[in-house]
Amino acid sequence: MRIIKYLFLLLLLSLVTLSIFIATQKGAFTVERSRIINSQRAAVFSYANDLKNWEDWNSIAVEDSLMTINYSNTTVGTGGFCSWDGKKGAGELKTINLKENDSIMQTMLLDGNSADLVLSFKDTLGKTKVTYKAKGKMSFTSKVLNVFNGGGSNFFGTIFENSLANLDKRLVYEINTYDVKVNGVVRKLQAFYLSQTFTSEFSKVNKNKNIVFSKINTFCKKNNITVFGKPFVIFHTYDTANELTKISICIPIKEPIFTTEGSEIMSDTLQAFDAVKTTLKGDYTHLSKALKKTSDYLKANNLRTDTKFSRIEIYAVGKNESNNPSKWQTEIYFPTRPKPIYKPAVITPTAIEETVPKPVEEKEMPSEF
């Protein structure tokens, strides 16, 4: 009995000692991992900036097929939020700040651990160096589980390494799979719509349209207005020199309505027009290729664009329908002017007579003899 008692006391003492040792270990950690992603920086940033894509590349979600994820209404940019519950515990992620195409700052809670995260993006000759960095504190339970396994640095380091590998693999296919087809001249029918109009930098069009689409959809729900079709953007002007464009971000509606004077959201009618239609299947970063192909088609077919606006983009399949950029579909319409019709001149008999010189009458000359 004494031996059992001593063994029990020794075991108890060992547990107490271990607990004290773990409790006195630093819970704070800093971890950083980097990887070259084989896609352009703007595409990588745009993909990582939407939390709806998080479950497709972050190893926390990828390795847990039974995880349930809840998203806030806003998932792009500052304020984007998601929470989850899975086999390895519960957590939440929130985007608190960002710098366009440069960095994304987030906070994460993961099963009692808290961390400030920074994803940074650096262009490297058409590819992107993505750095994933975290500073945080581990819970006592996590310190127990990881005390003999490198602590928080190793725990989060493994998550980051696997996540960046998943991001590269995902983007190689999703971003680089695309197709551009010029459909030819079509007739675009009349449509009623609600819109907000302003001038935007090229690089901020995507961000602005997502914000305004959400705002107009909310306006429609509050006022029982029926949305009738896919969202679209009218590019009124397109200044490539200064990279500025005047745009109207639009939601089509079933019937015309009247909005109050001075309202941010206005009601208008898009009149029917002829246009060259081009379909881009894939990520929006391939837009320049679609514009180039359309320009070549216009020149080859001797078609002139109308000056009433630059073009219209209709988002037939977008982020709301699919998280996979390879499945997105953007319809682009360039308004055209009708070709001038040259009618052959009609020559009447009278006109012929008028144009043919009359013969000179011969006069009898007096005889010299």
TrEMBL record:
Domain GyrI-like small molecule binding, chain residue ranges per copy: 212-335
Domain of life of the organism encoding this protein: Bacteria
UniProt protein name: Transcriptional regulator
Species the sequence originates in: Flavobacterium nackdongense
